[in-house]
Specification:
Helix content is 45%, strand content 17%. It starts with a helix and ends in a 23-residue tail after the last helix. Strand 6 and strand 7 form a beta hairpin. The strands form 2 sheets. The protein has a 7-stranded mixed beta sheet with strand order 1-9-8-2-5-3-4, with helices on both faces. It has a two-stranded antiparallel ribbon with strand order 6-7. With 283 residues, it is of the alpha/beta class. The protein has one domain.
Length: 283
């Protein structure tokens, strides 16, 4: 696998992206667990969508997901210059002055998140929160390649203590809080009207370090033109006194972005794995 990803790093980006789309279209034709998860999520979140439209969306999303895996070669093994060419940046904040504000960059699991985080790390010191993978070989490779421009990789098990230290040292932290990580330190808030188990850690960390919370989204541009990393204004009056209100605000922001590019959100994740008491499982 490492050799294949290294090979992709030497191929033109457009060729690699097209290979990913073709492989994704082929794999979608094979019934599997992840395809079933995609359809379950789409039915829950878009109940009024026709079966034909939902099928088109599911197929397009699957192609994007597989393409994002194939493009890891470019992102993990490409040099800083290639990443600069690949990702354009539009920022509402001054990225040259990060020392004066403790900053939590909150991302979301769109297919372009890896490219955006990797490109940012070529320009600025940053720490990144990650979830260790079950395969130790792949996990080690991913952590090593993601950190090669100086990113401090922080596993979720060490998150609070180390993140607070990093923020107090003036280094921004990148994290994503839109997955179901279990009931601990989480609340249920509606995501497209469906109760979703959502972390409250962003509120707690921001309050502990008086940090601003800055959303960011990386989208795949059409016509194989690469990616666009959009960094938004800090959330106003965040955190509030109520972590549930804060979780809902982040989810509302996410919903707005999903509506812009529904095929690029990670519907392959079991977003509704945990259910409120008394509600049946959906997967």
């Amino acid at each position: 696998m490492t050799g294949l990803l290294r090979l992709f790093a030497f191929l033109p980006y457009g060729v690699v992206a097209r290979i990913g789309m073709v492989v994704g279209a082929w794999l979608y034709r094979i019934p599997g667990r992840r395809r079933s998860v995609v359809h379950t999520n789409l039915k829950l979140c878009f109940p009024d969508m026709s079966d034909e439209a939902r099928e088109r969306l599911a197929r397009a999303h699957f192609c994007h997901v597989i393409r994002s895996y194939v493009e890891r070669g470019t992102q993990w093994y490409g040099n800083a210059r290639s990443l600069e060419r690949l990702v354009e940046v539009e920022s509402a904040i001054d990225l040259s002055d990060m020392q004066s504000h403790a900053t939590i960059f909150v991302g979301f699991h769109f297919v372009g998140i890896e490219a955006g985080c990797m490109m940012y790390s070529t320009r600025h010191p940053v720490a990144s929160l990650y979830t260790p993978m079950s395969n130790r070989l792949i996990d080690g490779m991913a952590k090593r390649q993601r950190a090669r421009f100086g990113t401090e990789m922080i596993p979720r098990s060490d998150s609070v203590r180390r993140i607070l230290r990093v923020l107090r040292e003036g280094k921004p932290v990148m994290l994503a809080a839109d997955m179901d990580f279990g009931l601990r330190d989480s609340v249920f808030v509606p995501f497209f009207g469906v109760p979703a188990c959502t972390l409250t850690s962003v509120s707690r960390m921001a309050a502990a370090c008086n940090a601003r919370v800055v959303p960011f989204v990386t989208e795949v541009l059409p016509d194989y033109r690469g990616y666009k990393l959009s960094i938004f204004e800090p959330l106003s009056d965040f955190p509030s006194a109520d972590p549930t209100v804060d979780a809902r605000r982040l989810t509302e922001f996410l919903e707005t972005q999903v509506r812009r590019m529904p095929d690029q959100y990670y519907w392959v994740h079991k977003r509704f794995k945990n259910r409120p008491a008394g509600e049946a499982g959906v997967y």
